[in-house]
Amino acid sequence: MTMQRPIDTSRRSFLKGSAVAAAGLVVGFHMAPAGKAFAATAKAGEGGMLNAFVRIAPDGIVTVYAKHVEMGQGSYTGLATILAEELDADWSKVRATGAPADAKLYANLAFGMQGTGGSTAMANSWDQLRQAGATARAMLVAAAAERWKVPAAEITVAKGVVSHAASSRKAGFGELAVDAARQTPPASVTLKDPAKFALIGKRAPRLDARSKSNGTALFTIDVKLPGLLTALVARPPQFGGKVKAVEAAAARKVPGVVDVVQVPSGVAVIAKGFWAANKGREALQVTWDLSAAETRGSDEMLASYRELAKQPGVPARRDGDAEAALSQATAGQGTRKFEATYDFPFLAHAPMEPLDCVVRLSNDGCEIWAGDQFQTVDQANAAHVLGFKPEQVKINTLYAGGSFGRRATTQSDYIVEAVQVAKAFGAGKPPVKVLWTREDDIRGGYYRPLYHHALAAAVDEKGEITAWRQRIVGQSILTGTPFEPIMVKNGVDITSVEGASTLPYAIPNLAVDLHTTKSGVPVLWWRSVGSSHTAFATEVFLDEIALATKQDPVALRRKLLAKHPRHLGVLNLAAEKADWGKPLPKGWARGVAVHESFSSFVAEVAEVSVQADGSWRVERVVAAVDCGQPINPEIIKAQVEGGIGYGLAALLSGAITLEKGEVQQSNFHDYEVLRIDQMPKVEVHIVPSKEKPTGIGEPGLPPIGPAVANALMAATGQRFRALPLPSSIKSA
């Protein structure tokens, strides 16, 4: 998802915090919206920390409270690294845990609410957590100076130890924590010179690696509470359907079934375990009202998209006069015209841990356990269902087994559904865990929209691209959501056109149009959002032009990116490391793509091999990434590798298809994820940078599709304009 706006750092002030407890030092920071105060508070208690980013226990353990959910992307480790660097903590004693749902303290500074997405975790926390760590460090130093009766300027801190060389005195963080909590937070602090970073930019073990390896990491699916029940919901077979009638007698007779309740999304069977709930759901007899349901197939939708693309849409970008330049090419006035269309199917998110949520409901409060990605939104929506105030809803954010955007919905669908089940079951009763099977989510969840692109370009006799027109057709993700007012401008959903409307290539006449369609299929951001399709269309079309005009694809890009040094930097690095231009074995070829998303720049070179029987595979991928100051290089590499793997799955086999409104896929046998034997050798090279950190969870994905398609085009001479790609290719 892309929801970024500049963070105003010009008006920050520290306000004195208070409260000291034997539990140790707790320092928390709140970055207010632009133009308001930047506040710091300190608070600790035996019941846990409420509004703070760091707690130092008497045993010296430093706990960082992460406002961003850990769903495999390494956010806990990255956030803790930023704070621990300025604190000068001993990494072996650093821990991380999810912060409570409290937007006043833990708002994502790019969103104005607490939530994770858009690859914003490190970018929006960089200044905030550096300030938090430096302030906590200053308070420890002040406590030591007061205790030892020495000037604070003579005290040093390193690896969790505070020292005064002249008197040979030392103290661990834990020894000073209580005294430090009594100190007045300084009005300002000096942040480290990046040249002195000891943790940032270095390899540090992930904080969640051990618990995820030994099985102690707590995911929602692992939650066990006294009397906990399990619920599965029967949902309509078509989007927009509703319950007309239900016969639950047979379901209630299934051993272990406790109750059957109707909720807005369908009918829930509540039981003592998953299998009883599943058998009970199978025994339900539900009559569905499908009068308002979506009944079209995806092929019908795509056909209508193709017709729309024949006409101009709503302008998303206008440079020069693309239509006039294209008209000259059509008339044969010294230029050639190129045209191509590209099709992209609906895609499911398919996280490894399916959707799940635990709810314990009382008459005056609600407690939720979930791998929650949108705490503020989910808290508000749950409260609305119950008639509560948001503060009456407590959210415990646990590890999430993947998301790729699925757990971040403005409707809070799976959270709200769980709350509705608990409400229908009754307040004061045992807690309920609502589970979605993978079939439930793939058949009835949210999807990356279906898209169609129509491109045209004019190229003069020198091979210069003089015009570029791109028409995009697809559903809006943001229309009808709280983000619409700021992210849908003049009828253009920026997530539909990002990567196309922001095309960096030096083309004098450039036009991007958008046709926004409507359907009953619920759509949502999917890893890398608009760039998941725009990068493919733009980068493959550019290679088609290069091939037709006998230009080297890297050389053409270098020429068009002359005024974009960061694009050019990753392109040159990837080409160098991939040995661009050097011979390959027979049947092998290379393809390249470069793309900016989430303020990060990634270039990828893919090597493919095509066999005589038409079978092919991706052998090697070389990626270069510029995401600003690297925080943890190993996590950056892992995220780029993960983005490549996730993107390859969509490229090779990913497609959600509808027939008469019903999704045809159901699980990993027909909606395949990448198998380990399909994963190519991947090399990731990071551009050194002193710029502030930018996103990394998503930017690795967009270039992989076009890089592979371009390699296949180089190997076979064929054009590849629809995804997923064919599994067998015959050379032209």
Task: List the topology elements.
Layout: E1 25-31, E2 38-41, E3 54-56, E4 62-66, H1 75-87, E5 94-98, H2 103-106, H3 121-148, E6 155-158, E7 161-164, E8 169-172, H4 173-181, H5 209-214, E9 229-234, E10 242-247, H6 249-252, E11 257-263, E12 266-271, H7 274-283, E13 285-289, H8 298-308, E14 314-319, H9 322-330, E15 335-344, E16 356-361, E17 366-370, H10 375-386, E18 393-397, H11 413-425, E19 432-435, H12 438-444, E20 451-460, E21 465-475, H13 484-487, E22 488-489, E23 492-493, H14 494-497, E24 509-517, H15 531-548, H16 553-560, H17 565-577, E25 588-597, E26 600-610, E27 616-626, H18 633-652, E28 658-659, E29 662-663, E30 681-686, H19 704-716
Helix pairs in contact: 1-3, 3-4, 10-11, 15-19
Please name the defining characteristics of this protein.
Aldehyde Oxidoreductase, domain 4; alpha+beta; 30 strands; 7-stranded mixed sheet; 5-stranded mixed sheet; 24% strand; 732 residues
Written account of the structure:
The chain is of the alpha+beta class and 732 residues long. The protein has three domains: 25-208, Aldehyde oxidase/xanthine dehydrogenase, molybdopterin binding domain (Aldehyde Oxidoreductase, domain 4); 220-291 and 355-435, Aldehyde Oxidoreductase, domain 4; 299-346 and 448-716, Aldehyde Oxidoreductase, domain 4 (2-Layer Sandwich). The strands form eight sheets. The protein has a seven-stranded mixed β-sheet, sandwiched between helices. The protein has a five-stranded mixed β-sheet with strand order 2-1-3-4-5. Helix 1 (75-87) runs parallel beside helix 3 (121-148).
